[in-house]
């Protein structure tokens, strides 16, 4: 179990997209930020967690998911560079399906459920599907909200 946790932590540090990794490295070249940038056209770079700050005044920010928007995870000790996921579809007021890279080491995952568990129902705390256990992960991850190339900016 400790090995799995360490592997997950190490793999998620690659989400920043600001460093190059060789194919021989543990993380490989697949990272969440470059993947999201290539799929959405958002011109944001660097650590995934910095996308929220960078997007202010340039892109719409919201606490409501819309298809094509990007959920921006905060940096934590478990996810030091943060993480970004692309909203594919909203299933209910508290569940979305996303596509993202490197949540599971070295993989692109599609149609992954993420559930809002925030007390104010504002998508600032989420649980993410973890395929190895075939269910939502036990941990909740803090998030800033959603960034998109269009729509009103209703978040601060």
TrEMBL record:
Report the domain of life of the source organism.
Answer: Bacteria
- Coiled-coil segments on the chain, per record: none
Q: Where is the signal peptide?
A: 1-16
- InterPro entries in the record, alphabetically? CHAP_dom, Papain-like_cys_pep_sf
Q: Which UniProt keywords apply?
A: Signal
**Record SUPFAM superfamilies:** Cysteine proteinases
Q: Which Pfam families match?
A: CHAP
Residue ranges of domain Peptidase C51 in the record: 7-127
State if Cell inner membrane is listed as a keyword: no
Q: Indicate whether Signal appears among the record's keywords.
A: yes
Which protein is depicted?
Peptidase C51 domain-containing protein
Q: Which organism is it from?
A: Gluconobacter frateurii NRIC 0228
